[in-house]
């Protein structure tokens, strides 16, 4: 979904086909009611949506109707809004059901993005559930808070870097997603029982001994 005046281009070496739907605010003001405008624009808040094949077939069918003059662009926009809303609702329900039955979708997401996550709000936005609900489900399933789980993942990666690289303590902390070295040292010691500096020394002494 591309907002007005944003430079963009296609890329890739493989052939493809697509549907381009362009409209202006003036067009929406002229053609749609206030409620219809809200429905259409609400669907374009999320920049990227990957639709399953069943929805894409319906969009292609409606696009052909526009080309052949069987329906107006207004009807196409409203059908597009309806499809996107239906898909988003189904996706939200699936995510919530997964979170209710199992915390693995949450932990899987954390394992992939733990270095980038800086607040619980980012997770509640992604899973579309409240912060209290998300934290309760995760702790019930894992015995850990989300912050504790993220920190453990960061510490595990940091310990690996301390063993296998010559990166400074500061560089290791930054690569693992910690905002400050002070916080990194505190979290690392809480989880490992030693400071990052001592952990590196112990690891190297063990290798020397071997």
Descriptive terms for the model:
0% strand, 210 residues, 11 helices, mainly alpha, elongated
Secondary structure layout plus pairing:
Layout: H1 25-31, H2 34-42, H3 53-67, H4 73-101, H5 104-113, H6 120-127, H7 131-142, H8 146-164, H9 169-175, H10 181-192, H11 196-209
Provide an overview of this structure:
The chain has helices at about 25-30, 35-40, 55-65, 75-100, 105-115, 120-125, 130-140, 145-165, 170-175, 180-190, 195-210. With about 210 residues, the protein is mainly α. Helix 3 (about 55-65) packs antiparallel against helix 4 (about 75-100). The radius of gyration is 25 Å and the shape is elongated. The mean pLDDT is about 80.
Largest sheet geometry: none
In DSSP terms (H or I, runs of 4 or more residues), the helix count works out at 11
The strand count comes to: 0
Name the structural class: mainly alpha
Query: Which regions are unreliable across 5 or more consecutive residues at pLDDT < 50?
Result: none
Helical content (DSSP H or I, runs of 4+): 55-70%
Overall radius of gyration? 25 Å
Fraction of residues in β-strands: under 5%
Q: What is the straight-line distance between the termini?
A: 57 Å
- Write down the overall geometry: elongated
Mean pLDDT across all residues, rounded?
A: 81
Order of helices and strands: HHHHHHHHHHH
Structure in a nutshell:
By secondary structure, the chain is mostly helical. The protein has helices at residues 25-31, 34-42, 53-67, 73-101, 104-113, 120-127, 131-142, 146-164, 169-175, 181-192, 196-209.
